[in-house]
């Protein structure tokens, strides 16, 4: 059994499955998928998806807002977990409380099985696994070393940074936000771990 924290810093874990964008997609998949998950995730929420495109032209930069369709969210009544569905995308989110990797893995596998049952197992492209942590302490007492242990898996620039900081690389994102300089102000420090895996072309097998 892993270490148990009095105040676990993990605020969210999520697993994203990106499927072949050239695979057939039908809007009826939203309803078919909800039929599978509605007992555990009865609440529905519809979100528009927009993207900003910038194009450099003579005389300046032209911006354009593009409609990318709809993303559906299916939530547990207690808001401890949700499933997100969009064309060629499935996201499984576990919020607080996070019990264990074994429990989260079971949730991921069950929701992926539901997806594959209504989409004829479209080819899998990229899999993203992320763990998002949030640490809080008084601003005057904060130091990077007090929050993060030095490790070969952490960027050197993170351990050498003062506050505030933001770092980004292939598997690590971290930030520090200071609410103010007065004694007792809260410093929020976030650690976002991500694993990005590319599935072999033509494979529809879920990596475990």
3D structure, described in words:
- There is one protein chain.
- The protein is α+β, with helices and mostly antiparallel strands and 208 residues long.
- It has one domain (10-198).
- The chain has 4 helices and 9 strands; from the N terminus they run βαββββαβααβββ.
- It has helices at 28-37, 101-119, 144-147, 156-159; strands at residues 10-19, 43-57, 60-75, 81-86, 89-95, 124-138, 166-168, 172-178, 186-198.
- Strands 2-3-4-5-1-6-9-8-7 form a 9-stranded antiparallel β-sheet, covered by helices on one side.
- Strand 4 (81-86) and strand 5 form a beta hairpin.
- Helix 1 packs across helix 2 (101-119).
- The longest helix is centred in the middle third of the chain and has 19 residues, at 101-119.
- The two termini are 20 Å apart.
- The model is unreliable at 181-189 and 200-208 (pLDDT under 50).
């Amino acid at each position: 059994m892993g270490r148990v924290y009095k105040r676990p810093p993990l605020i969210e874990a999520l697993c994203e499955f990106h499927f072949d964008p050239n695979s057939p997609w039908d809007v009826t998949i939203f309803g078919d998928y909800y039929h599978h998950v509605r007992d555990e995730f009865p609440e529905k929420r519809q979100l528009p998806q927009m993207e900003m495109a910038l194009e450099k032209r003579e005389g300046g930069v032209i911006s354009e807002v593009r409609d990318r369709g709809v993303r559906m969210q299916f939530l547990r009544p207690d808001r401890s977990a949700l499933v997100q569905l969009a064309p060629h995308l499935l996201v499984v989110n576990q919020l607080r409380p996070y019990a264990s990797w074994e429990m989260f893995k079971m949730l991921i596998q069950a929701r992926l099985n539901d997806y594959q049952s209504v989409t004829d197992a479209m080819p899998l492209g990229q899999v993203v696994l992320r763990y998002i942590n949030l640490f809080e302490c008084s601003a005057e007492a904060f130091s990077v070393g007090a929050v993060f242990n030095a490790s070969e898996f952490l960027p050197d620039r993170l351990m050498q940074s003062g506050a505030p900081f933001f770092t980004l690389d292939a598997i690590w994102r971290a930030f520090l936000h200071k609410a103010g300089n007065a004694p007792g102000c809260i410093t929020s420090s976030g650690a976002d771990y991500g694993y990005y895996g590319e599935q072999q072309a033509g494979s529809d097998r879920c990596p475990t």
